Amino acid sequence: LLGGEFARDRKWPWQVSLHYSGFHICGGSILSAYWVLSAAHCFDRGKKLETYDIYVGITNLEKANRHTQWFEIYQVIIHPTFQMYHPIGGDVALVQLKSAIVFSDFVLPICLPPSDLYLINLSCWTTGWGMISPQGETGNELLEAQLPLIPRFQCQLLYGLSSYLLPEMLCAADIKTMKNVCEGDSGSPLVCKQNQTWLQIGIVSWGRGCAQPLYPGVFANVSYFLSWIRYHLQIIPNPPQILPSLSSSPKNTLIIFVTIMGHLLVL
Amino acid sequence: VSRRHPKSQANSLSGDVACGQPVLQGK
Predict the structure, then answer these.
(1) Which of A41, A79, A174, A188 is catalytic?
(2) What is the pLDDT of residues A45-93, one digit of tens each?
(3) Is A185 a catalytic residue?
């Protein structure tokens, strides 16, 4: 995030860090115990799912603490229109974890917005571990920034003919103070407060550079994908859990028998 | 385990935990 400030523990408990080969590459948000919402472009075709790690309950990427939980990915569901009508259109991914998140004051889910949410006069914030300068500097601390929403027609005027904005996209940036999302913030949530509850209205998706005030950050509009998100979370069962148990296979029984006999002989 | 009050959020997908309500609220 450019122009962001340090975020305190417990302020954004749904924030997720997505790592690949041990390095932070994207953000995400917790929807439920098994599901994380992120951006589709964080999951390139060439990348292996086994190489991803997901961290929750963390603000400093170098300091996991007693509230930090680590997860492996069971499956990723990419929106069917990803890159279909736009180079970064349909930029939504549902990530199912192999095991369940344990909720606490430091780890909580975000709400989805109602489909008819009126976006005027909302206080909206974004968070992330993305680059903190256009030169590519990175930081380990989670940053936060309040970003005004920019009407889509106005955002389209700013981007001009070079980048077309789909109806499923929304824009936000603080042009006066140069606050904007940057590389590494992708997948992180844009959340707005309504009636004492935070709702996720956007997913960090793309933009032209980070420090050019005339090019706001572009987000996937969560309201546009609501039915797709709800459908998958309802129909997909939790992943099978591997429970520790005593095996009754003949081979293991034999091993146990031989071990007991060995102990008896020693005695 | 969270001490949050459940079942208050129509838009929650998380079942028994209230969504969007951090313990630490910004001013």
Answers:
(1) A41
(2) 888 999 999 999 999 999 999 999 999 999 999 999 999 999 999 999 9
(3) no
Q: What percent of chain A has pLDDT over 90?
A: 76
The answer to whether residue A196 neighbours chain B at the CB level (below 8 Å) is yes
Sheet hosting strand A189-194, strand order edge to edge: A5-6, A143-146, A123-128, A189-194, A197-206, A217-221, A169-172, A149-150
**Both tokens assigned to B10:** 């129509």
Question: Per-residue b/e over A65-86, b at no fewer than 16 CB within 10 Å?
Answer: eebbbebebbebbbbebbeeeb
Q: What is the ipTM of this complex?
A: 0.82
DSSP A83: T
Could you tell me which of A114, A75, A122, A69 has the C-alpha nearest to residue A94? A75
DSSP state of A150: E
Are the beta carbons of A109 and A14 closer than 8 angstroms?
A: yes
Judge contact between A41 and A79, C-beta under 8 A: no
Question: Is the Cβ of A104 closer than 8 Å to some Cβ of chain B?
Answer: yes
B25 vs A contacts (CB less than 8 Å): 11
Please report how many Cα atoms fall inside a 13 Å half-sphere around the Cα of residue A150, on the Cβ side.
24
Give the span between the Cα atoms of A126 and A212, in whole angstroms: 18
Q: Is the Cβ of B21 closer than 8 Å to some Cβ of chain A?
A: yes
Please choose, from the candidates A191, A172, A189, the residue with its C-alpha nearest in 3D space to the C-alpha of residue A56. Answer: A189
User: Tell me: the pLDDT tens digits for A220-262?
Assistant: 999 999 999 999 999 999 999 877 765 555 555 544 455 545 5
